[in-house]
Protein backbone atom coordinates (compact mmCIF):
# COMPACT_ATOMS: atom_id res chain seq x y z
CA UNK A 1 0.00 0.00 0.00
CA UNK A 2 1.42 3.37 -1.01
CA UNK A 3 2.20 5.92 1.66
CA UNK A 4 1.05 8.72 -0.62
CA UNK A 5 -2.39 10.27 -0.21
CA UNK A 6 -4.31 12.97 -2.02
CA UNK A 7 -3.34 16.45 -0.78
CA UNK A 8 -5.45 17.81 2.06
CA UNK A 9 -8.63 19.39 0.74
CA UNK A 10 -8.37 17.60 -2.62
CA UNK A 11 -10.27 14.42 -3.46
CA UNK A 12 -10.33 11.36 -5.66
CA UNK A 13 -13.81 10.96 -7.14
CA UNK A 14 -14.97 7.63 -8.54
CA UNK A 15 -18.07 5.45 -8.65
CA UNK A 16 -21.31 7.18 -7.70
CA UNK A 17 -19.48 10.37 -6.65
CA UNK A 18 -17.84 10.77 -10.05
CA UNK A 19 -21.14 9.95 -11.76
CA UNK A 20 -22.96 12.65 -9.78
CA UNK A 21 -20.37 15.32 -10.58
CA UNK A 22 -20.40 14.34 -14.25
CA UNK A 23 -24.20 14.53 -14.37
CA UNK A 24 -24.22 18.03 -12.83
CA UNK A 25 -21.52 19.18 -15.26
CA UNK A 26 -23.50 17.90 -18.24
CA UNK A 27 -26.68 19.55 -16.95
CA UNK A 28 -24.78 22.83 -16.55
CA UNK A 29 -23.47 22.81 -20.11
CA UNK A 30 -26.90 21.85 -21.45
CA UNK A 31 -28.63 24.69 -19.57
CA UNK A 32 -26.04 27.23 -20.72
CA UNK A 33 -26.10 26.05 -24.34
CA UNK A 34 -29.89 26.34 -24.42
CA UNK A 35 -29.49 30.00 -23.39
CA UNK A 36 -26.92 30.69 -26.12
CA UNK A 37 -23.66 30.35 -24.14
CA UNK A 38 -20.56 28.91 -25.81
CA UNK A 39 -17.93 26.89 -24.01
CA UNK A 40 -14.52 28.37 -23.27
CA UNK A 41 -11.52 26.37 -22.04
CA UNK A 42 -8.90 28.60 -20.42
CA UNK A 43 -5.55 27.84 -18.73
CA UNK A 44 -5.55 26.37 -15.25
CA UNK A 45 -2.85 28.93 -14.32
CA UNK A 46 -2.56 32.64 -15.03
CA UNK A 47 -0.10 35.40 -14.22
CA UNK A 48 -0.34 36.15 -10.51
CA UNK A 49 -0.67 39.84 -11.32
CA UNK A 50 -3.97 39.18 -13.09
CA UNK A 51 -5.56 38.09 -9.82
CA UNK A 52 -3.74 40.67 -7.69
CA UNK A 53 -4.93 43.51 -9.90
CA UNK A 54 -8.34 42.13 -10.83
CA UNK A 55 -9.57 40.42 -7.67
CA UNK A 56 -7.82 42.76 -5.25
CA UNK A 57 -4.64 42.27 -3.27
CA UNK A 58 -6.40 42.80 0.07
CA UNK A 59 -9.01 40.08 -0.49
CA UNK A 60 -8.68 36.77 1.35
CA UNK A 61 -8.56 35.01 -2.01
CA UNK A 62 -5.33 36.74 -3.04
CA UNK A 63 -3.76 37.50 0.34
CA UNK A 64 -4.33 34.09 1.97
CA UNK A 65 -5.69 31.49 -0.46
CA UNK A 66 -3.82 31.89 -3.75
CA UNK A 67 -1.68 28.92 -4.85
CA UNK A 68 1.42 30.61 -6.23
CA UNK A 69 3.72 28.62 -8.53
CA UNK A 70 7.50 28.94 -8.36
CA UNK A 71 8.63 30.04 -11.84
CA UNK A 72 11.25 28.09 -13.77
CA UNK A 73 14.58 29.81 -14.27
CA UNK A 74 13.88 30.55 -17.94
CA UNK A 75 10.46 32.04 -17.17
CA UNK A 76 10.45 34.80 -14.58
CA UNK A 77 6.71 35.55 -14.83
CA UNK A 78 5.04 34.59 -11.52
CA UNK A 79 2.06 32.29 -12.06
CA UNK A 80 -0.77 31.11 -9.82
CA UNK A 81 -3.41 28.40 -10.04
CA UNK A 82 -6.70 30.07 -10.85
CA UNK A 83 -8.91 30.66 -7.77
CA UNK A 84 -11.90 31.73 -9.88
CA UNK A 85 -12.93 31.97 -13.53
CA UNK A 86 -13.90 35.56 -14.26
CA UNK A 87 -10.51 37.28 -14.43
CA UNK A 88 -9.08 34.63 -16.76
CA UNK A 89 -12.11 34.59 -19.04
CA UNK A 90 -12.12 38.38 -19.30
CA UNK A 91 -8.39 38.26 -20.03
CA UNK A 92 -9.18 35.88 -22.91
CA UNK A 93 -11.97 38.19 -24.14
CA UNK A 94 -9.49 41.09 -24.31
CA UNK A 95 -6.54 39.09 -25.69
CA UNK A 96 -8.50 37.50 -28.54
CA UNK A 97 -10.35 40.63 -29.66
CA UNK A 98 -13.81 39.36 -28.76
CA UNK A 99 -14.94 42.97 -28.47
CA UNK A 100 -15.34 42.94 -32.26
CA UNK A 101 -17.86 40.07 -32.08
CA UNK A 102 -21.60 40.68 -31.58
CA UNK A 103 -22.18 41.74 -27.97
CA UNK A 104 -22.76 40.40 -25.44
CA UNK A 105 -20.32 37.52 -25.74
CA UNK A 106 -21.84 34.64 -23.77
CA UNK A 107 -19.31 32.14 -22.37
CA UNK A 108 -19.53 29.11 -20.08
CA UNK A 109 -17.06 26.77 -18.43
CA UNK A 110 -17.26 24.00 -15.85
CA UNK A 111 -13.76 23.53 -14.50
CA UNK A 112 -11.52 23.02 -11.45
CA UNK A 113 -10.26 25.92 -9.35
CA UNK A 114 -7.92 26.15 -6.37
CA UNK A 115 -7.91 28.01 -3.06
CA UNK A 116 -5.88 27.30 0.06
CA UNK A 117 -8.98 27.44 2.25
CA UNK A 118 -9.87 25.47 5.40
CA UNK A 119 -11.40 22.22 4.12
CA UNK A 120 -14.88 21.24 5.30
CA UNK A 121 -18.06 19.81 3.84
CA UNK A 122 -18.74 21.51 0.52
CA UNK A 123 -15.51 23.52 0.63
CA UNK A 124 -12.33 22.06 -0.84
CA UNK A 125 -8.95 23.32 -1.94
CA UNK A 126 -9.61 21.95 -5.40
CA UNK A 127 -13.23 22.50 -6.35
CA UNK A 128 -15.35 22.52 -9.49
CA UNK A 129 -17.48 25.49 -10.54
CA UNK A 130 -20.12 26.13 -13.18
CA UNK A 131 -19.26 29.60 -14.50
CA UNK A 132 -21.31 31.78 -16.83
CA UNK A 133 -20.08 35.15 -18.15
CA UNK A 134 -21.97 37.62 -20.37
CA UNK A 135 -19.56 40.32 -21.55
CA UNK A 136 -20.37 43.55 -23.38
CA UNK A 137 -23.89 44.50 -22.23
CA UNK A 138 -24.60 47.14 -19.57
CA UNK A 139 -28.38 46.81 -19.54
CA UNK A 140 -30.46 45.23 -16.76
CA UNK A 141 -31.93 42.70 -19.19
CA UNK A 142 -28.73 40.65 -19.26
CA UNK A 143 -28.66 40.69 -15.44
CA UNK A 144 -32.13 39.13 -15.44
CA UNK A 145 -31.06 36.53 -18.01
CA UNK A 146 -27.96 35.45 -16.09
CA UNK A 147 -29.61 35.31 -12.66
CA UNK A 148 -32.58 33.37 -14.04
CA UNK A 149 -30.25 30.92 -15.82
CA UNK A 150 -28.56 29.95 -12.56
CA UNK A 151 -31.82 29.68 -10.63
CA UNK A 152 -33.47 27.60 -13.35
CA UNK A 153 -30.48 25.25 -13.53
CA UNK A 154 -30.67 24.55 -9.79
CA UNK A 155 -34.41 24.02 -9.88
CA UNK A 156 -34.13 21.64 -12.83
CA UNK A 157 -31.79 19.49 -10.74
CA UNK A 158 -34.47 19.26 -8.05
CA UNK A 159 -33.38 22.08 -5.71
CA UNK A 160 -36.75 23.77 -6.12
CA UNK A 161 -36.54 25.77 -2.89
CA UNK A 162 -33.44 27.73 -3.91
CA UNK A 163 -33.62 31.45 -3.13
CA UNK A 164 -31.93 34.37 -4.83
CA UNK A 165 -30.57 36.86 -2.28
CA UNK A 166 -30.13 40.14 -4.13
CA UNK A 167 -28.41 43.47 -3.62
CA UNK A 168 -26.79 46.32 -5.52
CA UNK A 169 -23.27 47.26 -4.44
CA UNK A 170 -23.45 50.54 -6.34
CA UNK A 171 -20.86 52.09 -8.62
CA UNK A 172 -17.83 54.36 -8.42
CA UNK A 173 -20.15 57.37 -8.13
CA UNK A 174 -22.15 56.25 -5.11
CA UNK A 175 -19.87 53.81 -3.27
CA UNK A 176 -17.51 56.44 -1.78
CA UNK A 177 -20.30 57.93 0.35
CA UNK A 178 -21.31 54.47 1.52
CA UNK A 179 -17.70 53.60 2.31
CA UNK A 180 -17.47 56.75 4.44
CA UNK A 181 -20.63 55.75 6.31
CA UNK A 182 -19.18 52.30 6.98
CA UNK A 183 -15.89 53.74 8.23
CA UNK A 184 -17.81 55.91 10.69
CA UNK A 185 -19.86 52.90 11.79
CA UNK A 186 -16.91 50.56 12.38
CA UNK A 187 -14.46 53.17 13.74
CA UNK A 188 -15.59 52.78 17.40
CA UNK A 189 -14.52 49.10 17.40
CA UNK A 190 -11.30 49.50 15.42
CA UNK A 191 -9.29 48.35 18.42
CA UNK A 192 -11.23 45.08 18.53
CA UNK A 193 -10.57 44.24 14.89
CA UNK A 194 -7.77 42.03 13.65
CA UNK A 195 -4.97 43.38 11.49
CA UNK A 196 -6.65 42.34 8.23
CA UNK A 197 -9.93 44.02 9.14
CA UNK A 198 -8.18 47.19 10.28
CA UNK A 199 -6.61 47.35 6.82
CA UNK A 200 -10.05 46.81 5.28
CA UNK A 201 -11.48 49.60 7.42
CA UNK A 202 -8.91 51.96 5.95
CA UNK A 203 -8.80 50.75 2.34
CA UNK A 204 -12.11 49.03 1.51
CA UNK A 205 -14.67 49.03 4.34
CA UNK A 206 -17.24 47.12 2.25
CA UNK A 207 -15.09 44.04 2.87
CA UNK A 208 -15.97 44.29 6.57
CA UNK A 209 -19.51 43.20 5.71
CA UNK A 210 -17.97 39.93 4.49
CA UNK A 211 -15.61 39.47 7.44
CA UNK A 212 -15.52 36.29 9.55
CA UNK A 213 -14.08 38.14 12.56
CA UNK A 214 -16.51 37.98 15.50
CA UNK A 215 -16.27 41.69 16.36
CA UNK A 216 -16.83 42.72 12.74
CA UNK A 217 -19.74 40.30 12.32
CA UNK A 218 -21.51 41.72 15.39
CA UNK A 219 -20.98 45.31 14.26
CA UNK A 220 -22.09 44.51 10.70
CA UNK A 221 -25.55 43.52 11.95
CA UNK A 222 -26.33 47.20 12.60
CA UNK A 223 -24.31 48.66 9.71
CA UNK A 224 -25.98 51.11 7.33
CA UNK A 225 -27.52 49.35 4.32
CA UNK A 226 -26.36 49.88 0.77
CA UNK A 227 -29.71 50.67 -0.91
CA UNK A 228 -30.03 53.94 0.98
CA UNK A 229 -26.75 55.17 -0.50
CA UNK A 230 -27.24 54.24 -4.16
CA UNK A 231 -27.20 56.90 -6.87
CA UNK A 232 -30.36 57.27 -8.96
CA UNK A 233 -28.92 55.26 -11.87
CA UNK A 234 -27.90 52.30 -9.69
CA UNK A 235 -31.22 52.32 -7.83
CA UNK A 236 -33.16 52.36 -11.11
CA UNK A 237 -31.04 49.52 -12.51
CA UNK A 238 -31.71 47.40 -9.41
CA UNK A 239 -35.46 48.09 -9.59
CA UNK A 240 -35.64 46.91 -13.20
CA UNK A 241 -33.73 43.72 -12.37
CA UNK A 242 -36.00 42.94 -9.41
CA UNK A 243 -39.11 43.53 -11.50
CA UNK A 244 -37.81 41.39 -14.36
CA UNK A 245 -36.97 38.51 -12.05
CA UNK A 246 -40.44 38.67 -10.53
CA UNK A 247 -41.97 38.41 -14.01
CA UNK A 248 -39.69 35.42 -14.69
CA UNK A 249 -40.92 33.71 -11.54
CA UNK A 250 -37.59 33.89 -9.70
CA UNK A 251 -38.02 34.32 -5.94
CA UNK A 252 -35.86 37.24 -4.83
CA UNK A 253 -35.03 38.20 -1.25
CA UNK A 254 -33.47 41.62 -0.69
CA UNK A 255 -30.17 41.35 1.19
CA UNK A 256 -29.16 44.99 1.79
CA UNK A 257 -25.77 44.13 3.33
CA UNK A 258 -24.79 41.42 0.85
CA UNK A 259 -21.40 41.96 -0.74
CA UNK A 260 -19.43 39.46 -2.76
CA UNK A 261 -15.98 38.29 -1.67
CA UNK A 262 -14.10 39.85 -4.61
CA UNK A 263 -13.37 43.54 -5.11
CA UNK A 264 -14.34 43.81 -8.77
CA UNK A 265 -18.13 43.68 -8.36
CA UNK A 266 -20.39 46.66 -9.12
CA UNK A 267 -24.14 47.17 -9.12
CA UNK A 268 -25.95 43.82 -9.24
CA UNK A 269 -24.79 41.18 -6.73
CA UNK A 270 -26.58 38.02 -5.65
CA UNK A 271 -26.25 34.58 -4.10
CA UNK A 272 -28.11 31.30 -4.60
CA UNK A 273 -29.03 29.98 -1.15
CA UNK A 274 -30.99 27.07 0.25
CA UNK A 275 -33.42 28.18 3.00
CA UNK A 276 -32.73 27.15 6.55
CA UNK A 277 -29.00 26.84 6.01
CA UNK A 278 -26.49 29.38 7.23
CA UNK A 279 -22.96 30.24 6.23
CA UNK A 280 -20.99 29.33 3.15
CA UNK A 281 -22.20 25.74 3.16
CA UNK A 282 -25.75 26.99 2.51
CA UNK A 283 -24.62 29.14 -0.40
CA UNK A 284 -24.56 27.19 -3.66
CA UNK A 285 -23.07 30.08 -5.61
CA UNK A 286 -23.47 33.68 -6.59
CA UNK A 287 -22.39 36.38 -8.93
CA UNK A 288 -22.49 39.99 -9.91
CA UNK A 289 -21.63 42.73 -12.35
CA UNK A 290 -17.98 43.59 -12.90
CA UNK A 291 -18.14 46.57 -15.24
CA UNK A 292 -14.79 47.95 -14.09
CA UNK A 293 -12.71 44.76 -14.20
CA UNK A 294 -11.61 44.99 -17.84
CA UNK A 295 -10.07 48.42 -17.26
CA UNK A 296 -8.21 47.09 -14.21
CA UNK A 297 -6.51 44.34 -16.21
CA UNK A 298 -5.54 46.45 -19.20
CA UNK A 299 -8.63 46.47 -21.41
CA UNK A 300 -11.03 49.29 -22.12
CA UNK A 301 -14.21 49.85 -20.16
CA UNK A 302 -16.38 46.78 -20.73
CA UNK A 303 -19.66 45.99 -18.94
CA UNK A 304 -20.00 42.36 -17.88
CA UNK A 305 -21.84 40.05 -15.50
CA UNK A 306 -21.49 36.44 -14.44
CA UNK A 307 -21.98 33.79 -11.79
CA UNK A 308 -20.22 30.79 -10.30
CA UNK A 309 -22.10 27.82 -8.85
CA UNK A 310 -20.18 25.24 -6.84
CA UNK A 311 -20.66 21.81 -8.41
CA UNK A 312 -19.41 20.08 -5.25
CA UNK A 313 -21.89 22.01 -3.11
CA UNK A 314 -24.72 21.19 -5.49
CA UNK A 315 -23.88 17.48 -5.32
CA UNK A 316 -23.82 17.62 -1.50
CA UNK A 317 -27.21 19.38 -1.48
CA UNK A 318 -28.70 16.76 -3.81
CA UNK A 319 -27.35 13.94 -1.64
CA UNK A 320 -28.67 15.60 1.55
CA UNK A 321 -32.13 15.74 -0.03
CA UNK A 322 -31.78 12.20 -1.35
CA UNK A 323 -32.23 13.42 -4.92
CA UNK A 324 -30.63 10.88 -7.25
CA UNK A 325 -28.50 12.11 -10.10
CA UNK A 326 -26.05 10.29 -12.31
CA UNK A 327 -27.23 6.87 -11.13
Low-confidence segments, ≥5 residues, pLDDT <50? none
Number of domains: 2
Mean model confidence by pLDDT: 90
The number of distinct β-strands equals 11
Q: Please list the strands of the largest sheet in the order they lie side by side.
A: 1-5-6-11-10-9-7-8
Number of helices: 11
Description of the molecule:
With 327 residues, the chain is α+β, with helices and mostly antiparallel strands. It folds into two domains: 192 residues, BirA Bifunctional Protein, domain 2, CATH 3.30.930; 45 residues, no CATH class. It contains eleven helices and eleven strands. Helix 1 packs across helix 11. The longest helix is centred in the N-terminal third of the chain and has 20 residues. The radius of gyration is 20 Å and the shape is globular. The two termini are 30 Å apart.
Descriptive tags:
327 residues; alpha+beta; BirA Bifunctional Protein, domain 2; 2 domains; eight-stranded mixed beta sheet; three-stranded antiparallel beta sheet; 36% helix; 19% strand; globular
Secondary-structure map:
Blueprint: H1 15-34, E1 38-39, E2 45-47, H2 48-56, H3 60-63, E3 68-69, E4 79-81, H4 86-95, E5 105-114, E6 126-135, H5 140-156, E7 163-168, H6 175-186, H7 195-203, H8 214-220, H9 232-247, E8 252-254, E9 266-273, E10 283-289, H10 293-296, E11 304-310, H11 311-320
Parallel strand pairs: 1-5, 7-8
Antiparallel strand pairs: 2-4, 3-4, 5-6, 6-11, 7-9, 9-10, 10-11
Helix pairs in contact: 1-11, 5-9
